[in-house]
């Protein structure tokens, strides 16, 4: 699938829904989707605009969000890698900015399903967020990419 697409990312137990338009292309066995999304601290629209990129491969989804600085450069980049791990494996480590400073989080993927079609890509992810070895959140993430 290539060209203009609509992206819908649902998380927060279905309470947070981000919708955007973007550009999709396929290169070296990976689907890439480039788009912008606007998020506030509570995950709702009306906050900061991120430049985002999805990379979808067989068995892996990477969501990269770049927060711009005042001069238009990249101030902070967060990369969330979702790949199923075993119980003893570490997950993806992310430095997550908050108003009180940066938190180091581990994202452990518990389930990952990816379906590809000519008109749609669907990724469903169940993950666990950890801080210093303690679980702070479990959630589901659903990503739908459709041709426009």
Classify the secondary structure makeup into a structural class: mainly beta
Strand content: over 45%
Number of distinct helices: 0
Ends distance: 11 Å
Number of domains: 1
Which H/E pattern describes the elements?
Answer: EEEEEEEEEE
Low-confidence stretches: none
Radius of gyration: 15 Å
Say which CATH homologous superfamily is assigned: Calycin beta-barrel core domain
CATH class: Mainly Beta
Q: State the helical fraction.
A: under 10%
- Please describe the biggest sheet, giving its number of strands, its sense, and whether it closes into a barrel: 10 strands, antiparallel
Q: What name does the CATH topology carry?
A: Lipocalin
- In total, how many beta strands? 10
Coarse morphology: globular
The CATH architecture term is Beta Barrel
Mean pLDDT: 87
Question: Within the largest sheet, what's the order of strands?
Answer: 6-5-4-3-2-1-10-9-8-7
Structure in a nutshell:
The chain has 148 residues and is mainly β. The protein has strands spanning 3-11, 16-27, 30-39, 48-57, 60-68, 74-82, 92-98, 101-116, 120-131, 134-147. The chain has one domain (3-147): Lipocalin, CATH 2.40.128.20.
How would the blueprint of this fold be written?
Layout: E1 3-11, E2 16-27, E3 30-39, E4 48-57, E5 60-68, E6 74-82, E7 92-98, E8 101-116, E9 120-131, E10 134-147
Care to describe what's here?
The chain has 148 residues and is mainly β. It has one domain (3-147): Calycin beta-barrel core domain (Lipocalin, Beta Barrel). Helices cover 0% and strands 73% of the residues. The protein is built from no helices and 10 strands. It has strands at 3-11, 16-27, 30-39, 48-57, 60-68, 74-82, 92-98, 101-116, 120-131, 134-147. A 10-stranded antiparallel beta sheet has the order 6-5-4-3-2-1-10-9-8-7, with no helix packed on it. β7 and β8 form a beta hairpin. The protein starts with a strand and ends with a strand.
């Amino acid at each position: 699938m290539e060209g203009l697409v609509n992206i819908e990312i649902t998380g927060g137990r279905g309470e947070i829904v981000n919708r955007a338009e973007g550009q999709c292309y396929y290169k070296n066995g990976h689907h890439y989707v480039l788009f912008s999304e606007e998020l506030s601290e509570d995950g709702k629209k009306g906050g900061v605009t991120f430049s985002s990129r999805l990379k979808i491969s067989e068995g892996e989804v990477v969501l990269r969000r770049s927060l711009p600085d005042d001069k238009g450069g990249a101030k902070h980049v967060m990369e969330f890698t979702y790949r199923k791990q075993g119980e003893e494996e570490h997950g993806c480590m992310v430095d997550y900015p908050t108003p009180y400073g940066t938190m180091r989080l581990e994202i452990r993927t518990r389930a990952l399903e990816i379906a590809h079609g000519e008109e749609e890509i669907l990724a469903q992810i169940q993950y666990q967020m950890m801080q210093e070895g303690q679980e702070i959140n479990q959630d589901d993430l659903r990503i739908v990419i459709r041709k426009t």
